[in-house]
């Protein structure tokens, strides 16, 4: 062992009740071996008696926007061990937030695609290259994001915004680069446009009406994913005197039809956004709103853990099993009985390292 190499700490969490994706199991022992969940061959060097508390996989917020390191700490404090950024620039900022130890792990798209004249085009800091006017610019946009290391491509299907041909081209070029495509769609027209283009994920839920049975069936047939960001939609509805009930009914119908509904918040404290949604706590609010749409508490927990991992290709996390990333949250109370119990956080581990809140005494 070299002088600078530290021995791997192997921690046994004993007397802990694990969420296995369906139920809270009887007390058992979970091993944290370095960055991973250990197996029977791991030899503990440290023991934590959980005293019958509950262990969940770390939470995943499927829609955030970031401004700096403080956002990561706030999310980690609320048990969010992974966050999917849906628009942060410049790219140097996003890169600086990746790979930090013991705080929320980030995936990102970098700059989203929109068009001149769209609502998003008026964001003061938005780079010029985000404004995509035609199929030629669409090809260049995707190529640049891939070069920058984007994990997926984000399209803002505003109305007004990119026309159908341009959205189609953005999706087609992303497919050629084997990138997942997420569409921002807050109206029925934008949702339909996104479906015609063949996106993988539709984020937000419409406030101007309830999604039609035909569009919902297309979501099912094409195996699309919904990240409704109900926390943002509720705030926007209040700010703009629109009907949040349209969003709620759409999500209820999507869930009933079998469309995977994932937990994401659109947490974003930038000036000028329709509603300020705080990082961290908002995911717990989102989970409560999803229960209000008819998802069971167990389904909601999966919507913030294993399902995002599955659908966004994060195959090393989202469940508590040997060999997976040790992203874990320890809870006092049972979230299957009451989803509000996800707030009763005792401890958080990110890639095996315990998060220490900057606000702790």
UniProtKB/TrEMBL annotation:
Amidohydrolase-related domain: residues covered: 54-353
InterPro entries: Amidohydro-rel, Metal-dep_hydrolase_composite, Metal_Hydrolase, Metallo-dep_Hydrolase
Pfam families: Amidohydro_1
Lineage top rank: taxon: Eukaryota
GO molecular function ontology, one term from the record: hydrolase activity, acting on carbon-nitrogen (but not peptide) bonds
SUPFAM superfamilies, A to Z: Composite domain of metallo-dependent hydrolases (SSF51338), Metallo-dependent hydrolases (SSF51556)
Name the UniProt record assigns to this protein: Amidohydrolase-related domain-containing protein
Annotated organism of origin: Penicillium cinerascens
Lineage of the organism: Eukaryota, Fungi, Dikarya, Ascomycota, Pezizomycotina
């Amino acid at each position: 062992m070299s002088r600078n190499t530290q021995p791997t700490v192997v921690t046994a969490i004993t007397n802990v009740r694990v969420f296995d994706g369906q139920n809270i199991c009887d007390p058992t022992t979970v091993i944290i071996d370095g960055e991973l969940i250990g197996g029977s061959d791991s030899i503990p060097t440290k023991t934590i008696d959980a005293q019958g508390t509950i262990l969940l996989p770390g939470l995943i917020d499927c829609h955030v926007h970031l401004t700096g390191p403080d956002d990561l700490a706030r999310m980690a404090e609320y048990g969010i061990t992974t966050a999917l950024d849906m628009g942060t620039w410049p790219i140097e900022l996003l890169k600086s937030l990746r790979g930090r130890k013991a705080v929320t792990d980030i995936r990102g798209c970098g700059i989203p695609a929109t068009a001149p004249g769209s609502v998003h085009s008026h964001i003061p800091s938005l780079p010029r290259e985000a404004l995509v006017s035609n199929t030629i610019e669409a090809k260049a946009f995707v190529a640049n994001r891939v070069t920058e290391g984007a994990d997926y491509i984000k399209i803002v299907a505003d109305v007004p915004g990119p026309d159908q041909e341009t959205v189609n081209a953005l999706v087609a070029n992303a497919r050629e680069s084997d990138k997942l495509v997420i569409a921002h769609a807050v109206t029925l027209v934008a949702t339909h446009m996104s479906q015609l283009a063949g996106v993988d994920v539709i984020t937000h839920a419409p406030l101007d009406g309830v999604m039609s049975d035909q569009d919902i069936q297309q979501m099912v047939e094409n195996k699309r994913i919904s990240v409704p960001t109900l926390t943002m939609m509720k705030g926007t509805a209040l700010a703009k005197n629109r009907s949040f009930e349209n969003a709620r009914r759409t999500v209820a119908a999507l869930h009933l039809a079998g469309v995977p509904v994932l937990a994401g918040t659109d947490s974003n404290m930038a000036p000028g956004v329709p509603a300020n949604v705080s990082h961290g706590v908002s995911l717990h609010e989102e989970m409560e709103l999803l229960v209000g749409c008819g998802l069971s508490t167990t389904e909601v927990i999966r919507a913030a853990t294993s399902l995002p991992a599955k659908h966004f290709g994060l195959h090393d996390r989202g469940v508590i099993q040997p060999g997976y990333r040790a992203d874990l949250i320890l809870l006092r109370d049972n979230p299957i009985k009451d989803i509000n119990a996800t707030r009763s956080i005792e401890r958080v581990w990110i890639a095996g390292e315990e998060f220490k809140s900057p606000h702790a005494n």
